[in-house]
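With this grant's support, we have paired protein sequences with backbone structure tokens. One protein thus recorded is set out beneath this paragraph:

_____
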Amino acid sequence: MNVLPRSLNKIILIIFMLFLAVRIGPGQSYWLKITNKTEHYIHVIVNNRSFLYVAPDDYIRGSFAVRELQVKVFYSPGQSISGRAERELQAAGEAQTSCERNVFCNTVPAPNVTWEVTAEDFQATDEI
């Protein structure tokens, strides 16, 4: 015979499932920040994910599940300049998780991957 009301059983089950979800958690993710240090607008492509018309002195930021990132940067169309730059960026570390009694877990995220794009990074090209 069950001594707990049905609603209390459901609440306990939900709390237990949330505990498992937090404990197992999603996979490792890496933060990327690319800053436009040029005087022109740029397009940024990171592993086939596009960020268009990034303004001068502005940045894009995104989370990615892979450690190695292929980054391509182009001057945005409609400007008096053309060029592109490419880099393969790699995260330097892993997230660190510590738990106390398997209940109170603290995760320090992996370090950010950054690139400050300057005019010197670009190669002149006729392509856009």
